[in-house]
Amino acid sequence: MNAKERMEAAINLKPVDKVPNAPFNEAPVCKYYGSTFRASLLEGPEMLKAHMKGLEEFKFDWVMLGMGLIGGIIPEALDCRVNYPEDVFPIIEKTCVFSMEDVDRVAGKDVFTKRMDSFLEGISLLKKELKDEVPIACEYISPFTIATRLRGTNEIMMDMYENPELVHALQEAIVPLDIAIGKALIEAGVEYIFYGADMECPVLLSPDHYKIFVHEPTTKVCNELARLGSKVLPHMCGDIVKTGIVDMLLEMDIHGIMPGNLTQEKVLDIRELKKKVNDRICIFDNINPNGPLLIGKPEEVTKETLEHLEKAKKMSGYIFSTAGTSSPFTPKENYLAMDKEVANFQWS
Amino acid sequence: MAITDILNAVVSLKKEDVVENVIAEINKGTQVDDILNKGLIEAMDVVGARFSSGEVFVPEMLMAAKAMQAGLEVLKPYLSSDTAAQKGTVIIGTVKGDLHDIGKNLVAMMVEGAGFNIIDLGVDVDTDKFVTEAQIHNADVVCLSALLTTTMPAMARTVEAIKEAGLKVKTIIGGAPVTDAYARQIGADGFSDNAPGAVALIRKLVAVAA
Predict the structure, then answer these.
(1) Complex ipTM value
(2) What domains sit in chain B, N to C, each tagged with a CATH number?
(3) For a FRET experiment, which of A23, A264, B14, B191 has its CA 20 to 30 Å from that of B29?
(4) What is each CA distance from A99 to A105, A165, A166, A174, B74, in whole angstroms?
(5) Which residues of A touch B (CB under 8 A)?
(6) What residues of B are in contact with residue A294 (Cβ under 8 Å)?
């Protein structure tokens, strides 16, 4: 099997020849192989160079993109002031929604800026070079998380009590834009869209607020992207099983779930998630990107990786991954230790 | 009317009721320290405990802190200037290169709600600024926040700079990618993954130092 076939088989809960290896690897790849971190997050030809070099040394089963898109390109296209430092992720310096009038302005925005075009060019270049053997995944964000970028997280959180109409209206304005960007990603070559539910996870929001404010607009976008042919994979931190969020996720047209951290040091046991989703969709594993992987030694990473793989033995629809974005400062020898363990793991 | 009405109003996120009840207690001649400690501060402890146990979430924490602050504003003219200073002075900021502030703001609100003198340096704060402000205000604790894994090294640099400056101030760190192991690795005095935990840690560190 090549990487594309292996990922497709796992997503469809079919047998695979070995464990599919799909960590949140964009930041380490850009750091290890990019001419600069910023350029390889954002600029088409630089994205191509960094990720192709990454595939020469690592045995990843996908190319992952999107931190520059969700952290900078989308908020900037919708009028936030964004700073793009050379060696860190984009930083939103100024939000842009202060009233209902601003919501109307957001609704009318053309999101296809020069920076967006360059990012889409990177996807097209990669698609051509990968020759349909390695799939491309792109991180994406829900209307709610975009709303927090545009208005400010504290403000949106308090708006839920003080100005709920604005939270609904802003997301309503964002939904068509979110779909338009997703469609462009798919047309450029993205096959896997994973929803980084940064701000609506049950670490931050109650399940009730999720249901009232987030579920409907997210469902509209996810279902449309699935209809357009993408595999849709929500990624969410917190205990999505105990809080019942997973049941709401399963109401959407999704193909897999990527559970994140419970706390900084703990992750959800994917066996609990497997019991819940059974054989309806595939699940991604969740080795902690802030644990030994970031601050430990290669032998500790090997041990933790093996523990995760052993827990998942004989699990159908299983894909190895990290519980969230890997730090660009992850030591390369640690990332290689994880990669080697996954590549060599025997199912039986 | 009783002090518990203030507590209940904060816990119920009812800002107007908090203000009304604080005014009523002041007019009744209730000790302002009791209004502060048994009403406002204790209320934030209740909210913090509920947050830790997963009963309430960030929007509720923010609304409770807002209600508490409204009560504190009414109370401020009646408080002696050294009431907060007696508990200790805490400097807080998000480290250089990082503009995220939700966690930092939550901690700042909770720490203020717990009766400490809080000095919020904002976001994207230089290492030197943390050192200088800690010296100027004779701070007891410096809290460093970061959301990005890319800005975590700035925490290490700041902790080191504070030590090099010979300050006795304690340093604690927090933020989405930060762990207890990382705190130990960079020589910080503590770590918390949530705002109530940060308050408990600060209380502990200040008590030990005293």
Answers:
(1) 0.89
(2) 3-78 (1.10.1240.10), 84-209 (3.40.50.280)
(3) B14
(4) 10, 11, 8, 15, 28
(5) 27, 85, 87-89, 91-93, 153-154, 157-158, 160-161, 202, 204-206, 209, 243, 263-265, 289-291, 294-295, 325-329
(6) 149, 177, 182
